[in-house]
Amino acid sequence: MKRLVIRSIPEESTRAAALKRGEIDIVYFINGPIAEDFIMGTANGFSRFSEAIRVVVEGAEFADYFWPAAEQMVEMSHEYWRTNGQFVPNVTVRLASGGYIGGGLYHSQNIEGWLTTLPGLRIVVPAFADDAAGLLRTAIRSRGVTVYLEPKFLYNNPMARAKVPEEFAVPFGKARLRREGTNLTIVAYGTPVHFALEAARLLEAEGKSVEVLDLRSLVPLDFDAVLASVRKTSRVLVAHEDKVHGGFGGELAARIQAEAFPFLDAPVARVGSEFTPVGFSRVLERAILPSTDKVVAAAKKVLEY
Amino acid sequence: MARRRRALRPLAPLILMALTGLRAGPADAQPAPTVTVAAHVTLATRWLDPAETDAEITPFMLFYALHDALVKPMPAALNTPSLAESWSMSRDGRTWEFVLRKGVRFHNGDPVTADDVKFSFERYRGAAAPLLKERVRDVQVVDPSHVRFHLKDPWPDFMTFYGTSASGAAWIVPKKYIEKVGEDGFRRAPVGAGPYRFVSFQPGIELVLEAFDQYWRRRRP
Lengths: 305, 221
Description:
Distance between the termini of chain A: 63 Å
Oligomer: heterodimer
Number of helices of chain A: 10
Number of strands of chain A: 12
Structural class of chain A: alpha/beta
Mean pLDDT of chain B: 87
Helix content of chain A: 25-40%
Shape of chain A: elongated
Order of helices and strands of chain B: EEHEEEEHHEEHHEE
Strand content of chain A: 15-25%
Number of strands of chain B: 10
Low-confidence stretches of chain B: 1-28
Distance between the termini of chain B: 31 Å
Strand order of the largest sheet of chain B: 5-6-8-7
Protein backbone atom coordinates (compact mmCIF):
# COMPACT_ATOMS: atom_id res chain seq x y z
CA MET A 1 0.00 0.00 0.00
CA LYS A 2 1.16 3.50 -0.73
CA ARG A 3 -0.41 5.35 2.15
CA LEU A 4 -1.20 4.28 5.69
CA VAL A 5 -3.65 6.30 7.75
CA ILE A 6 -4.06 5.59 11.46
CA ARG A 7 -7.19 7.24 12.76
CA SER A 8 -8.27 7.47 16.39
CA ILE A 9 -11.74 6.11 16.95
CA PRO A 10 -11.67 5.19 20.61
CA GLU A 11 -15.34 4.28 20.80
CA GLU A 12 -15.91 0.72 19.78
CA SER A 13 -19.28 0.83 18.04
CA THR A 14 -18.13 3.90 16.07
CA ARG A 15 -15.16 1.88 14.86
CA ALA A 16 -17.47 -0.90 13.76
CA ALA A 17 -19.79 1.58 12.02
CA ALA A 18 -16.85 3.17 10.19
CA LEU A 19 -15.81 -0.24 8.95
CA LYS A 20 -19.36 -0.95 7.83
CA ARG A 21 -19.50 2.33 5.91
CA GLY A 22 -16.19 1.59 4.21
CA GLU A 23 -14.43 4.57 5.78
CA ILE A 24 -11.74 2.40 7.24
CA ASP A 25 -10.15 -0.88 6.27
CA ILE A 26 -8.85 -2.34 9.51
CA VAL A 27 -10.07 -1.98 13.06
CA TYR A 28 -8.25 -2.60 16.25
CA PHE A 29 -10.31 -4.39 18.85
CA ILE A 30 -13.93 -4.93 18.27
CA ASN A 31 -14.75 -6.60 21.50
CA GLY A 32 -18.01 -7.54 23.00
CA PRO A 33 -19.38 -9.00 26.16
CA ILE A 34 -18.23 -12.53 26.88
CA ALA A 35 -21.39 -13.93 25.40
CA GLU A 36 -20.64 -16.59 22.86
CA ASP A 37 -23.99 -16.47 21.09
CA PHE A 38 -23.54 -12.70 20.69
CA ILE A 39 -20.06 -13.18 19.24
CA MET A 40 -21.20 -15.79 16.75
CA GLY A 41 -24.34 -13.87 15.80
CA THR A 42 -22.30 -10.70 15.28
CA ALA A 43 -19.92 -12.57 13.04
CA ASN A 44 -22.81 -13.88 10.99
CA GLY A 45 -24.43 -10.47 10.68
CA PHE A 46 -21.17 -8.68 10.09
CA SER A 47 -20.23 -10.84 7.16
CA ARG A 48 -23.42 -9.69 5.39
CA PHE A 49 -22.21 -6.16 4.87
CA SER A 50 -20.01 -7.20 2.02
CA GLU A 51 -19.11 -10.36 0.23
CA ALA A 52 -15.51 -9.20 0.48
CA ILE A 53 -15.47 -9.15 4.29
CA ARG A 54 -13.93 -12.10 6.07
CA VAL A 55 -14.67 -12.46 9.77
CA VAL A 56 -12.43 -14.41 12.12
CA VAL A 57 -13.91 -15.31 15.48
CA GLU A 58 -10.81 -15.84 17.48
CA GLY A 59 -11.64 -18.25 20.21
CA ALA A 60 -15.19 -17.76 21.37
CA GLU A 61 -13.06 -18.89 24.26
CA PHE A 62 -12.27 -22.56 24.58
CA ALA A 63 -14.35 -25.09 22.71
CA ASP A 64 -15.81 -25.91 26.12
CA TYR A 65 -17.54 -22.53 26.16
CA PHE A 66 -18.90 -22.87 22.69
CA TRP A 67 -22.18 -24.40 23.78
CA PRO A 68 -23.95 -21.07 24.37
CA ALA A 69 -23.04 -20.19 20.76
CA ALA A 70 -24.53 -23.40 19.44
CA GLU A 71 -27.83 -21.83 18.42
CA GLN A 72 -26.07 -19.19 16.31
CA MET A 73 -23.65 -21.75 14.95
CA VAL A 74 -26.51 -23.95 13.78
CA GLU A 75 -28.19 -20.89 12.27
CA MET A 76 -25.01 -19.97 10.43
CA SER A 77 -24.57 -23.49 9.11
CA HIS A 78 -27.98 -23.20 7.44
CA GLU A 79 -27.53 -19.85 5.75
CA TYR A 80 -26.22 -20.95 2.38
CA TRP A 81 -28.89 -23.62 1.99
CA ARG A 82 -31.71 -21.47 3.41
CA THR A 83 -31.02 -18.54 1.07
CA ASN A 84 -30.46 -20.77 -1.93
CA GLY A 85 -26.87 -19.55 -2.15
CA GLN A 86 -27.70 -15.85 -1.94
CA PHE A 87 -25.86 -15.41 1.34
CA VAL A 88 -22.72 -17.11 2.54
CA PRO A 89 -21.35 -16.28 5.99
CA ASN A 90 -17.63 -15.92 5.31
CA VAL A 91 -16.58 -16.75 8.83
CA THR A 92 -13.68 -18.68 10.34
CA VAL A 93 -14.25 -19.83 13.92
CA ARG A 94 -11.10 -20.63 15.87
CA LEU A 95 -11.66 -22.85 18.87
CA ALA A 96 -8.98 -24.02 21.31
CA SER A 97 -9.86 -27.64 21.86
CA GLY A 98 -8.91 -30.64 23.88
CA GLY A 99 -7.13 -31.58 27.04
CA TYR A 100 -3.77 -32.60 28.47
CA ILE A 101 -3.43 -29.27 30.28
CA GLY A 102 -4.90 -30.33 33.61
CA GLY A 103 -7.85 -28.12 32.80
CA GLY A 104 -10.61 -30.39 33.96
CA LEU A 105 -14.09 -30.62 32.55
CA TYR A 106 -14.41 -26.98 31.40
CA HIS A 107 -11.07 -26.68 29.63
CA SER A 108 -10.56 -30.05 27.99
CA GLN A 109 -13.52 -30.69 25.73
CA ASN A 110 -13.43 -31.88 22.16
CA ILE A 111 -16.64 -31.04 20.40
CA GLU A 112 -16.07 -32.14 16.82
CA GLY A 113 -18.25 -35.21 17.31
CA TRP A 114 -21.17 -32.83 17.58
CA LEU A 115 -19.96 -30.27 15.06
CA THR A 116 -19.58 -32.82 12.30
CA THR A 117 -23.29 -33.58 12.50
CA LEU A 118 -24.11 -30.09 11.18
CA PRO A 119 -24.30 -29.85 7.40
CA GLY A 120 -22.96 -26.54 6.10
CA LEU A 121 -19.79 -26.34 8.19
CA ARG A 122 -16.24 -27.20 7.29
CA ILE A 123 -14.31 -28.74 10.19
CA VAL A 124 -10.52 -28.77 10.18
CA VAL A 125 -7.98 -29.86 12.83
CA PRO A 126 -4.25 -29.33 12.31
CA ALA A 127 -1.65 -31.49 14.04
CA PHE A 128 1.51 -29.69 12.89
CA ALA A 129 2.51 -26.05 12.66
CA ASP A 130 2.62 -25.96 8.86
CA ASP A 131 -0.89 -27.34 8.58
CA ALA A 132 -2.03 -24.95 11.31
CA ALA A 133 -0.87 -22.02 9.19
CA GLY A 134 -1.96 -23.52 5.90
CA LEU A 135 -5.46 -24.48 6.99
CA LEU A 136 -6.07 -21.15 8.66
CA ARG A 137 -4.94 -19.29 5.56
CA THR A 138 -7.25 -21.34 3.36
CA ALA A 139 -10.12 -20.90 5.80
CA ILE A 140 -9.81 -17.12 5.87
CA ARG A 141 -9.51 -16.92 2.09
CA SER A 142 -12.50 -19.14 1.47
CA ARG A 143 -16.18 -18.45 1.30
CA GLY A 144 -18.38 -20.17 3.85
CA VAL A 145 -18.03 -21.21 7.46
CA THR A 146 -14.95 -23.04 8.68
CA VAL A 147 -14.58 -24.27 12.24
CA TYR A 148 -10.87 -24.41 12.92
CA LEU A 149 -10.14 -26.57 15.93
CA GLU A 150 -6.80 -25.90 17.59
CA PRO A 151 -5.52 -28.72 19.80
CA LYS A 152 -4.27 -26.67 22.71
CA PHE A 153 -1.89 -29.39 23.83
CA LEU A 154 0.07 -28.61 20.66
CA TYR A 155 0.44 -24.87 21.29
CA ASN A 156 4.18 -24.23 21.64
CA ASN A 157 4.72 -27.97 21.66
CA PRO A 158 7.99 -29.03 19.98
CA MET A 159 6.34 -32.18 18.68
CA ALA A 160 4.17 -30.06 16.37
CA ARG A 161 7.12 -28.12 14.97
CA ALA A 162 7.30 -27.78 11.21
CA LYS A 163 8.77 -25.31 8.78
CA VAL A 164 6.04 -23.15 7.33
CA PRO A 165 6.71 -22.09 3.74
CA GLU A 166 5.79 -18.57 2.70
CA GLU A 167 2.13 -18.30 1.68
CA PHE A 168 1.62 -21.96 2.60
CA ALA A 169 -2.00 -23.00 2.11
CA VAL A 170 -3.59 -26.40 2.69
CA PRO A 171 -6.60 -27.35 0.57
CA PHE A 172 -9.67 -28.61 2.40
CA GLY A 173 -10.44 -32.29 2.23
CA LYS A 174 -6.89 -33.49 1.69
CA ALA A 175 -5.44 -35.93 4.23
CA ARG A 176 -1.69 -36.17 4.68
CA LEU A 177 0.15 -39.46 4.87
CA ARG A 178 2.48 -38.96 7.82
CA ARG A 179 4.09 -42.38 7.72
CA GLU A 180 3.90 -45.28 5.29
CA GLY A 181 3.30 -48.83 6.45
CA THR A 182 1.87 -52.15 5.34
CA ASN A 183 0.41 -53.97 8.39
CA LEU A 184 -1.96 -51.44 9.92
CA THR A 185 -3.43 -48.01 9.20
CA ILE A 186 -3.95 -45.56 12.03
CA VAL A 187 -6.35 -42.82 10.95
CA ALA A 188 -6.02 -39.83 13.27
CA TYR A 189 -6.33 -36.06 13.51
CA GLY A 190 -5.14 -33.45 15.98
CA THR A 191 -3.04 -34.47 18.98
CA PRO A 192 -3.47 -38.24 18.51
CA VAL A 193 -1.59 -38.00 15.20
CA HIS A 194 1.49 -37.65 17.38
CA PHE A 195 0.47 -40.62 19.54
CA ALA A 196 0.00 -42.63 16.36
CA LEU A 197 3.42 -41.68 15.05
CA GLU A 198 5.03 -42.60 18.36
CA ALA A 199 3.08 -45.86 18.45
CA ALA A 200 4.23 -46.62 14.90
CA ARG A 201 7.84 -46.14 15.98
CA LEU A 202 7.38 -48.43 18.97
CA LEU A 203 5.64 -51.11 16.91
CA GLU A 204 8.33 -50.95 14.28
CA ALA A 205 10.73 -52.29 16.90
CA GLU A 206 8.42 -55.30 17.11
CA GLY A 207 8.51 -55.79 13.37
CA LYS A 208 5.17 -54.18 12.57
CA SER A 209 4.83 -51.66 9.79
CA VAL A 210 2.23 -49.03 10.64
CA GLU A 211 0.83 -46.38 8.33
CA VAL A 212 -0.35 -43.09 9.84
CA LEU A 213 -2.90 -40.97 8.01
CA ASP A 214 -3.47 -37.44 9.32
CA LEU A 215 -6.96 -36.40 8.21
CA ARG A 216 -6.48 -32.64 8.83
CA SER A 217 -9.98 -32.03 7.55
CA LEU A 218 -13.04 -33.90 8.86
CA VAL A 219 -15.56 -32.10 6.67
CA PRO A 220 -14.89 -32.36 3.80
CA LEU A 221 -13.32 -35.74 4.41
CA ASP A 222 -10.63 -37.26 2.23
CA PHE A 223 -12.21 -40.69 2.27
CA ASP A 224 -10.34 -41.70 -0.86
CA ALA A 225 -7.11 -41.47 1.11
CA VAL A 226 -8.62 -43.60 3.88
CA LEU A 227 -9.80 -46.22 1.39
CA ALA A 228 -6.46 -46.32 -0.37
CA SER A 229 -4.68 -47.00 2.90
CA VAL A 230 -7.22 -49.60 4.06
CA ARG A 231 -6.88 -51.48 0.78
CA LYS A 232 -3.14 -51.55 1.37
CA THR A 233 -3.00 -52.63 5.04
CA SER A 234 -6.41 -54.32 5.62
CA ARG A 235 -6.37 -53.32 9.28
CA VAL A 236 -7.55 -50.00 10.69
CA LEU A 237 -7.41 -48.20 13.98
CA VAL A 238 -9.08 -44.80 14.32
CA ALA A 239 -7.58 -42.54 16.99
CA HIS A 240 -9.05 -39.24 18.13
CA GLU A 241 -9.19 -37.27 21.34
CA ASP A 242 -12.95 -36.87 21.40
CA LYS A 243 -15.05 -39.53 23.12
CA VAL A 244 -15.26 -42.89 21.40
CA HIS A 245 -18.98 -42.81 22.20
CA GLY A 246 -20.52 -40.58 19.55
CA GLY A 247 -17.13 -39.44 18.28
CA PHE A 248 -16.24 -38.90 14.65
CA GLY A 249 -14.43 -42.25 14.67
CA GLY A 250 -17.83 -43.96 14.66
CA GLU A 251 -18.65 -42.36 11.31
CA LEU A 252 -15.25 -43.33 9.94
CA ALA A 253 -15.52 -46.91 11.16
CA ALA A 254 -19.00 -47.28 9.72
CA ARG A 255 -17.98 -45.93 6.32
CA ILE A 256 -14.84 -48.05 6.20
CA GLN A 257 -16.83 -51.18 6.95
CA ALA A 258 -19.52 -50.24 4.47
CA GLU A 259 -17.18 -49.33 1.62
CA ALA A 260 -14.12 -51.47 2.20
CA PHE A 261 -15.43 -54.57 3.95
CA PRO A 262 -13.89 -57.04 1.48
CA PHE A 263 -10.46 -55.60 2.19
CA LEU A 264 -10.62 -55.86 5.99
CA ASP A 265 -8.85 -58.57 7.96
CA ALA A 266 -10.02 -57.26 11.35
CA PRO A 267 -12.85 -55.14 12.74
CA VAL A 268 -12.14 -51.40 12.66
CA ALA A 269 -10.99 -50.39 16.13
CA ARG A 270 -11.23 -47.03 17.85
CA VAL A 271 -9.22 -45.20 20.50
CA GLY A 272 -10.52 -42.02 22.10
CA SER A 273 -11.70 -40.57 25.38
CA GLU A 274 -13.82 -42.37 27.91
CA PHE A 275 -17.52 -41.47 28.03
CA THR A 276 -17.15 -39.06 30.91
CA PRO A 277 -16.13 -35.45 31.50
CA VAL A 278 -12.37 -34.96 31.78
CA GLY A 279 -11.16 -34.85 35.38
CA PHE A 280 -8.91 -32.17 36.82
CA SER A 281 -6.60 -34.68 38.43
CA ARG A 282 -3.70 -35.70 36.23
CA VAL A 283 -4.40 -39.29 37.20
CA LEU A 284 -7.98 -39.02 36.01
CA GLU A 285 -6.95 -37.07 32.92
CA ARG A 286 -4.54 -39.84 31.94
CA ALA A 287 -7.20 -42.46 32.55
CA ILE A 288 -9.81 -40.61 30.47
CA LEU A 289 -7.88 -39.23 27.50
CA PRO A 290 -6.14 -41.30 24.82
CA SER A 291 -2.37 -41.72 24.89
CA THR A 292 0.44 -43.42 23.02
CA ASP A 293 0.14 -46.42 25.34
CA LYS A 294 -3.55 -46.78 24.57
CA VAL A 295 -2.91 -46.47 20.85
CA VAL A 296 -0.19 -49.13 21.05
CA ALA A 297 -2.45 -51.48 23.01
CA ALA A 298 -5.34 -51.06 20.59
CA ALA A 299 -3.03 -51.41 17.58
CA LYS A 300 -1.69 -54.69 18.92
CA LYS A 301 -5.23 -56.05 19.28
CA VAL A 302 -6.01 -55.20 15.68
CA LEU A 303 -2.72 -56.62 14.49
CA GLU A 304 -3.24 -59.85 16.44
CA TYR A 305 -6.86 -60.35 15.37
CA MET B 1 -11.91 7.91 3.04
CA ALA B 2 -10.68 4.67 1.64
CA ARG B 3 -13.54 3.22 -0.31
CA ARG B 4 -12.16 0.34 -2.25
CA ARG B 5 -12.69 -3.30 -2.98
CA ARG B 6 -9.21 -4.52 -3.55
CA ALA B 7 -6.93 -6.92 -1.77
CA LEU B 8 -5.60 -5.90 1.56
CA ARG B 9 -2.35 -7.43 2.56
CA PRO B 10 -2.37 -8.00 6.32
CA LEU B 11 -0.06 -5.78 8.32
CA ALA B 12 1.43 -8.39 10.55
CA PRO B 13 2.39 -6.20 13.49
CA LEU B 14 -0.77 -4.16 13.33
CA ILE B 15 -3.45 -6.80 13.34
CA LEU B 16 -4.44 -7.65 16.88
CA MET B 17 -8.12 -8.05 16.57
CA ALA B 18 -10.45 -10.27 18.46
CA LEU B 19 -13.04 -9.93 15.74
CA THR B 20 -12.57 -8.02 12.60
CA GLY B 21 -13.36 -7.73 8.95
CA LEU B 22 -10.67 -7.90 6.34
CA ARG B 23 -11.60 -7.15 2.79
CA ALA B 24 -10.34 -10.13 0.91
CA GLY B 25 -9.89 -10.39 -2.79
CA PRO B 26 -7.97 -12.16 -5.47
CA ALA B 27 -4.42 -12.88 -4.37
CA ASP B 28 -2.95 -11.20 -7.43
CA ALA B 29 -4.87 -7.95 -7.03
CA GLN B 30 -2.82 -4.77 -6.76
CA PRO B 31 -2.15 -3.44 -3.27
CA ALA B 32 -4.58 -0.73 -2.25
CA PRO B 33 -3.30 2.83 -2.55
CA THR B 34 -4.54 3.76 0.93
CA VAL B 35 -5.28 1.65 3.95
CA THR B 36 -7.01 3.27 6.90
CA VAL B 37 -6.70 1.71 10.32
CA ALA B 38 -9.06 2.64 13.15
CA ALA B 39 -7.08 2.75 16.38
CA HIS B 40 -8.81 2.04 19.64
CA VAL B 41 -6.99 4.85 21.44
CA THR B 42 -6.37 8.56 21.14
CA LEU B 43 -3.07 8.98 19.34
CA ALA B 44 -0.56 10.83 21.50
CA THR B 45 2.22 12.99 20.10
CA ARG B 46 4.77 11.27 22.32
CA TRP B 47 4.06 7.99 20.53
CA LEU B 48 5.87 9.27 17.45
CA ASP B 49 9.13 9.46 19.38
CA PRO B 50 10.83 6.25 20.60
CA ALA B 51 12.69 8.26 23.23
CA GLU B 52 9.41 8.68 25.08
CA THR B 53 8.40 5.02 25.12
CA ASP B 54 6.18 4.36 28.08
CA ALA B 55 5.84 0.99 29.73
CA GLU B 56 3.05 -0.10 27.39
CA ILE B 57 2.80 -1.79 24.03
CA THR B 58 0.47 0.68 22.30
CA PRO B 59 3.06 3.12 20.85
CA PHE B 60 4.77 0.26 19.10
CA MET B 61 1.95 0.12 16.57
CA LEU B 62 3.26 3.48 15.34
CA PHE B 63 6.97 2.66 15.81
CA TYR B 64 6.74 -0.36 13.56
CA ALA B 65 5.46 1.83 10.75
CA LEU B 66 7.49 5.00 11.20
CA HIS B 67 10.73 3.84 12.80
CA ASP B 68 13.10 0.91 12.90
CA ALA B 69 15.19 -0.64 15.66
CA LEU B 70 18.57 -2.31 15.72
CA VAL B 71 16.80 -5.45 16.85
CA LYS B 72 13.10 -5.93 17.38
CA PRO B 73 10.42 -8.58 17.77
CA MET B 74 9.15 -9.86 14.44
CA PRO B 75 7.29 -13.03 13.47
CA ALA B 76 10.62 -14.80 13.01
CA ALA B 77 11.94 -14.23 16.53
CA LEU B 78 11.79 -12.06 19.61
CA ASN B 79 15.19 -10.59 18.70
CA THR B 80 15.07 -10.19 14.93
CA PRO B 81 17.99 -8.39 13.25
CA SER B 82 16.77 -5.16 11.71
CA LEU B 83 18.99 -2.08 11.47
CA ALA B 84 21.69 -4.26 13.00
CA GLU B 85 22.46 -7.25 10.84
CA SER B 86 24.23 -9.05 13.69
CA TRP B 87 25.42 -8.65 17.24
CA SER B 88 27.67 -10.45 19.67
CA MET B 89 28.52 -10.54 23.35
CA SER B 90 32.11 -10.55 24.57
CA ARG B 91 33.36 -13.54 26.52
CA ASP B 92 33.20 -11.63 29.79
CA GLY B 93 29.59 -10.61 29.12
CA ARG B 94 30.39 -6.93 29.55
CA THR B 95 30.45 -5.78 25.93
CA TRP B 96 27.78 -6.11 23.27
CA GLU B 97 28.77 -5.18 19.73
CA PHE B 98 26.31 -4.47 16.93
CA VAL B 99 27.12 -4.47 13.23
CA LEU B 100 24.85 -2.08 11.35
CA ARG B 101 23.23 -2.97 8.08
CA LYS B 102 24.91 -1.17 5.20
CA GLY B 103 23.16 1.30 2.95
CA VAL B 104 20.19 1.97 5.24
CA ARG B 105 18.87 5.52 5.25
CA PHE B 106 16.45 7.62 7.21
CA HIS B 107 13.47 9.12 5.41
CA ASN B 108 15.38 12.38 4.87
CA GLY B 109 18.19 10.54 3.09
CA ASP B 110 20.73 10.59 5.94
CA PRO B 111 22.51 7.26 6.44
CA VAL B 112 21.80 5.33 9.65
CA THR B 113 25.13 5.23 11.49
CA ALA B 114 26.62 4.19 14.81
CA ASP B 115 26.43 7.86 15.87
CA ASP B 116 22.64 7.66 15.58
CA VAL B 117 22.61 4.51 17.71
CA LYS B 118 24.63 6.15 20.48
CA PHE B 119 22.56 9.33 20.23
CA SER B 120 19.25 7.42 20.36
CA PHE B 121 20.32 5.44 23.40
CA GLU B 122 21.53 8.50 25.28
CA ARG B 123 18.44 10.46 24.31
CA TYR B 124 16.11 7.63 25.34
CA ARG B 125 14.16 8.66 28.43
CA GLY B 126 11.35 6.11 28.38
CA ALA B 127 10.15 3.78 31.08
CA ALA B 128 13.19 1.48 30.97
CA ALA B 129 15.75 4.30 30.88
CA PRO B 130 16.81 4.06 34.56
CA LEU B 131 17.23 0.31 34.28
CA LEU B 132 19.33 0.45 31.10
CA LYS B 133 21.39 3.49 31.98
CA GLU B 134 22.22 2.14 35.39
CA ARG B 135 23.84 -0.87 33.72
CA VAL B 136 25.36 0.60 30.54
CA ARG B 137 28.65 2.35 31.27
CA ASP B 138 29.29 3.71 27.79
CA VAL B 139 28.23 3.46 24.18
CA GLN B 140 31.29 3.46 21.93
CA VAL B 141 31.14 4.35 18.25
CA VAL B 142 33.83 2.11 16.72
CA ASP B 143 33.19 3.21 13.16
CA PRO B 144 30.05 4.22 11.24
CA SER B 145 28.79 0.64 11.12
CA HIS B 146 30.01 -0.74 14.45
CA VAL B 147 28.83 0.24 17.90
CA ARG B 148 29.72 -1.25 21.27
CA PHE B 149 27.72 -1.15 24.46
CA HIS B 150 30.01 -1.43 27.48
CA LEU B 151 28.19 -2.67 30.56
CA LYS B 152 29.29 -2.18 34.14
CA ASP B 153 28.69 -5.85 34.87
CA PRO B 154 27.71 -8.90 32.86
CA TRP B 155 23.98 -8.75 32.15
CA PRO B 156 22.59 -11.75 30.25
CA ASP B 157 19.21 -10.05 29.99
CA PHE B 158 20.58 -7.05 28.12
CA MET B 159 18.92 -8.04 24.84
CA THR B 160 15.69 -8.86 26.63
CA PHE B 161 15.40 -5.21 27.55
CA TYR B 162 17.24 -3.57 24.68
CA GLY B 163 16.13 -5.75 21.77
CA THR B 164 12.42 -6.23 22.53
CA SER B 165 9.36 -4.11 23.25
CA ALA B 166 10.44 -4.00 26.89
CA SER B 167 11.98 -0.64 26.01
CA GLY B 168 12.21 1.73 23.05
CA ALA B 169 15.96 2.26 23.48
CA ALA B 170 16.99 0.32 20.38
CA TRP B 171 14.71 2.34 18.07
CA ILE B 172 16.95 4.66 16.12
CA VAL B 173 16.28 8.34 15.44
CA PRO B 174 18.40 10.64 13.25
CA LYS B 175 20.98 12.57 15.30
CA LYS B 176 21.80 15.20 12.70
CA TYR B 177 18.17 15.95 11.94
CA ILE B 178 17.17 16.32 15.59
CA GLU B 179 20.17 18.52 16.32
CA LYS B 180 19.16 20.70 13.37
CA VAL B 181 15.40 21.02 13.97
CA GLY B 182 15.41 20.60 17.75
CA GLU B 183 13.13 18.51 19.93
CA ASP B 184 10.01 20.48 19.01
CA GLY B 185 10.82 20.29 15.33
CA PHE B 186 11.24 16.54 15.58
CA ARG B 187 7.91 16.24 17.35
CA ARG B 188 6.21 18.26 14.60
CA ALA B 189 7.84 16.36 11.74
CA PRO B 190 9.44 13.11 12.91
CA VAL B 191 11.92 11.38 10.64
CA GLY B 192 12.52 7.68 11.05
CA ALA B 193 14.01 4.71 9.25
CA GLY B 194 10.85 2.62 9.11
CA PRO B 195 8.78 1.37 6.18
CA TYR B 196 6.49 4.43 6.26
CA ARG B 197 7.48 8.08 6.37
CA PHE B 198 5.65 10.84 8.16
CA VAL B 199 3.17 12.95 6.14
CA SER B 200 0.94 14.66 8.70
CA PHE B 201 -0.37 14.34 12.22
CA GLN B 202 -3.38 15.82 13.94
CA PRO B 203 -2.66 15.01 17.58
CA GLY B 204 -5.29 12.74 19.00
CA ILE B 205 -7.06 12.38 15.67
CA GLU B 206 -5.13 11.07 12.72
CA LEU B 207 -1.65 10.12 11.57
CA VAL B 208 -0.93 9.90 7.86
CA LEU B 209 2.10 7.97 6.64
CA GLU B 210 3.39 7.18 3.19
CA ALA B 211 5.34 4.15 1.99
CA PHE B 212 9.11 4.72 2.09
CA ASP B 213 10.32 3.24 -1.17
CA GLN B 214 13.88 2.86 0.08
CA TYR B 215 13.00 0.80 3.14
CA TRP B 216 15.56 -1.99 3.28
CA ARG B 217 13.38 -4.94 4.25
CA ARG B 218 11.48 -6.42 1.34
CA ARG B 219 10.04 -9.56 2.88
CA ARG B 220 8.61 -10.45 6.24
CA PRO B 221 11.17 -12.43 8.26
